[in-house]
Amino acid sequence: MAALKTRRMLVLTCAIATLSTAAACSGEPGALPGSPGASGQGIIDRAPVASAEAIAASPTATAIKQRGQLLIGGSLDAPLLSQQNPATGETEGFDATLGKLLAKYIIGTPDAKIVNSSSETREALLQNSTVDVVFQTYTITPQRAEKVAFAGPYLMSGQAIATMKDKSAIRKPSDLNGKKVIAGANTPGVEAIKAQAPNAEVITFATDPECVQALEQNRGEAYVQDLTLLAASARLNDKIQIVGEPFTSDPYGIGLKHGDDAFKKFVNDWLVRLQQAGIWQQVWKDSLGTVVTGEAPAPPAIGSVPGS
């Protein structure tokens, strides 16, 4: 397991260098990475559909099928993960594609609607049934698992540091001591900063774009966030650099309403089917893999972390 985690972290670390190079060389800083491309429809065509027996075993899946649309708490501005293409109106990226595939599994068609949410609102959206699931770099923790249920994990990542390229004083987590450090509100980045740099002043904002904007405005000297989000930001903003390597291991889960064990089993069974069919790996190649060299990493084992 340790070796597997190391490989995954190395794969994502490779993304930093690749993304930085791409951002520096690209003449199209506004291009949309993570587009599913020509294989996007092919993935949807290959994706499984749940049996009538599987749907009947979950009241939540039954209700979604009757509604005819899966409601997803997520983002529309997260390149590589979940971003709306202004030309087509389609949401693209790793999380967005998985959401469409889950919709197909339940409904028979990839009819999914993303309800824009933030780290501060997604738990409430699940609790009051505004959304059915959350796909939003939602790190599984035992504390969060007391409020929501998590299917998965479905992707492994880790916290990393971004600074402006014209700054060189911060190269490692301990360098954050004595500095103003930006983090997303209610994200693991806050606790990661406190653990690695207890003398840092943490400044929080609600969304990733707000954090990036604050970094550009010098309201903090560094931004600590999940590596995949930082990599996407660096791809779109050539003023930003990622320094050092990820210093935590964060498992992403699919957020579900707390206590809905039948739907959690339903979603976990779907994830296993995607992994066994190689569809999870293809989605990774068509999104994160567009900027990461090498083969797709092995997907994480379902239920392998506390809280999942």
UniProtKB/TrEMBL annotation:
<dbReference type="GO" id="GO:0030288">
    <property type="term" value="C:outer membrane-bounded periplasmic space"/>
</dbReference>
<dbReference type="InterPro" id="IPR001638">
    <property type="entry name" value="Solute-binding_3/MltF_N"/>
</dbReference>
<dbReference type="Pfam" id="PF00497">
    <property type="entry name" value="SBP_bac_3"/>
</dbReference>
<feature type="signal peptide">
    <location>
        <begin position="1"/>
        <end position="24"/>
    </location>
</feature>
<dbReference type="GO" id="GO:0005576">
    <property type="term" value="C:extracellular region"/>
</dbReference>
<keyword id="KW-0732">Signal</keyword>
<protein>
    <submittedName>
        <fullName>ABC transporter substrate-binding protein</fullName>
    </submittedName>
</protein>
<dbReference type="GO" id="GO:0006865">
    <property type="term" value="P:amino acid transport"/>
</dbReference>
<comment type="similarity">
    <text>Belongs to the bacterial solute-binding protein 3 family.</text>
</comment>
<keyword id="KW-0813">Transport</keyword>
<feature type="domain" description="Solute-binding protein family 3/N-terminal">
    <location>
        <begin position="69"/>
        <end position="291"/>
    </location>
</feature>
<dbReference type="InterPro" id="IPR051455">
    <property type="entry name" value="Bact_solute-bind_prot3"/>
</dbReference>
